[in-house]
Amino acid sequence: MAAGLPALLLLLLAGLTAVNAVSTQASCLHTAREAALAAARGVGNEDGAQTAPPGAEVSVSIDGDRVQATVRAPVRALGGRLPRITVVATAVAAMEPGAQEISG
Q1: What is d(CA 52, CA 58) in angstroms, rounded to the nearest whole number?
Q2: Cβ–Cβ < 8 Å for 41, 62
Q3: pTM for this one?
Q4: pLDDT digits (tens, 9 = 90+) for 45-84
Q5: Residues 36, 34: Cα–Cα separation, whole Å
Q6: Is 14 helix (H, G, I), strand (E, B) or coil?
Q7: Collapsed DSSP state (helix, strand, coil) of residue 19
Q8: Are 38 and 44 in contact (CB under 8 A)?
């Protein structure tokens, strides 16, 4: 029992950290999709910044008729002293007709 309890606690912390990472990944993907669609419409990426997880970096790049949005967010491990994990999500959207005039 004394040897099994620390191993069980370690597995619990690893599982909770994995659930937190997957949840943050889903939030980053949602933010990247919104930012890419907003930039493709010529609106900008303000909507993406509002839905981003805490501490996330949102970057949008336009290459010809294609918009790519990337969101990076840190995930803190539930050990406190462990290094942070960085989760990345990317979304791509095609520029909509007339968006060049709106954004430019």
Answers
A1: 8
A2: no
A3: 0.80
A4: 555 667 888 889 999 998 889 999 999 999 988 767 778 8
A5: 6
A6: helix
A7: helix
A8: yes
